[in-house]
Amino acid sequence: MNPQKDINRIVDRAGQVLMNTYARIPVAFEKGQGCRLWDQEGRVYLDFLAGIAVSALGHSHPKVVETLKGQAERLLHTSNLYHIENQIALAEQLIEHSFADKAFFCNSGTEANEGAIKLARRYSSERYGPQKTTILCMINSFHGRTLGSLSATGQEKFQKGFGPLVPGFSFVPFDDLVALDENWDDKICAVLMEPVQGEGGIRVPDKAFLKKVKKRCQERNALLILDEVQTGLGRTGTLFCHEQFETQPDIMTLAKALGNGLPIGALLATNEVAAAFQPGTHAATFGGNPLVTAVAGTVLSIILGEGFLPGVRKTGIYFQNQLLGLKEEFPQVLDVRGMGLLLGIALNRPGKPIVDACLQKGFLINCTQDTILRFAPPLIVEPEEIDALIKTLRALLKEMN
């Protein structure tokens, strides 16, 4: 073995030069294909995390690779001082298939959420006065790690040590309309929420909740901002998760799957709201560059292709049914939750031992909220690959028994 590729040496090198922001797993991957990854020792893994819901089309998708190579040979970056045709084409695609009239591109989900916060506050201050600036968020939400989106995140464990946070955010329990009404005041300019909480434990609200929140916003001169960074672009079985709740936001954020591994975020809004941004009010130097928007356009075209989203729904139902079978079989599985191919099982004990054991057996999953096993595989995952994971989970749960 090449000593440079020894995992202990790789871990040591990382410790010498990288800030310690991740509790990294001692594995380094060298290549990927479809739902499979190979580490530096040639060991193969089935990926049921997809880079945290990013690699929607799997690894090294041929059309994505072809687009990437072709665009890289022509042009990478010019800045947004000039028109970028790939960016315009991607915006046209997103607008054609969503509620939105305008798009803004950035580099990540947290950056998209920062933009949404700014847009909501600027729109409301111009329309209703400078006192209307509070954004109502959900407990156990996650919107990112930059200071504004961190301040909007309803989990203190992520905020500890970073005060003072940005003021103007308040929090209510997720899926609790009574609490939302009780905590509403005239300063609220927007409600910011995920349609399904990801880091919060794969929590799906009541079917009517989003629609009722939108109604409250309309009645009280507030905007509904939906963070679809994790749930959007097919992850839950429809292009956008909110479609299944029969409502529409005023502002929506996207990222993760849009670039299938390349960094891109998007902020979508109606004409009325988007007009609050004018030259000088918001910007992103790298946002929507020719390379990433070319790739994102290909990704979106594939997801919108005939049969793709129905296939995600079918596979998601199959996966969920297999997980429900584990719930029936093992008392330590308390709940199965999620939508499409964003799924989780709640355990009656910490989930990390199962995550670690799955890794040793060649499966990548993770754990959120300490006891929730999260599954977010590439949207191209096959039933046979799901069966292989279920077989492993069943064996591990038997050992726990």
Major sheet description: 7 strands, mixed
Mean pLDDT: 98
> What string, H for helix and E for strand, traces the elements in order?
HEEEHHHEHEHHEHEHEEEHHHEEHEEEH
Number of extended strands: 15
The CATH architecture of the largest domain comes to 3-Layer(aba) Sandwich
Total individual domains? 2
The CATH superfamily name of the largest domain is Type I PLP-dependent aspartate aminotransferase-like (Major domain)
Overall 3D form: globular
Distance between the termini: 39 Å
Quickly name the level 1 CATH class of the largest domain. Alpha Beta
Helix segment count? 14
Rg measurement, Å: 21 Å
Helix content, binned percent: 25-40%
CATH topology of the largest domain: Aspartate Aminotransferase, domain 2
Side-by-side strand order of the widest sheet: 4-10-9-8-7-5-6
Strand content: 15-25%
Regions with little confidence, pLDDT below 50 for 5+ residues: none
Structural class: alpha/beta
Task: Describe the protein.
With 401 residues, this protein is an alpha/beta fold. It has two domains: 3-60 and 307-400, Aspartate Aminotransferase, domain 1; 75-303, Aspartate Aminotransferase, domain 2 (3-Layer(aba) Sandwich). The protein contains 14 helices and 15 strands. It has a seven-stranded mixed β-sheet, sandwiched between helices. Strands 1-2-3-13 form a four-stranded mixed β-sheet. β7 (188-193), α9 (209-219) and β8 (223-227) form a beta-alpha-beta unit. The longest helix is centred in the last third of the chain and has 22 residues, at 308-329. The mean pLDDT is 98.
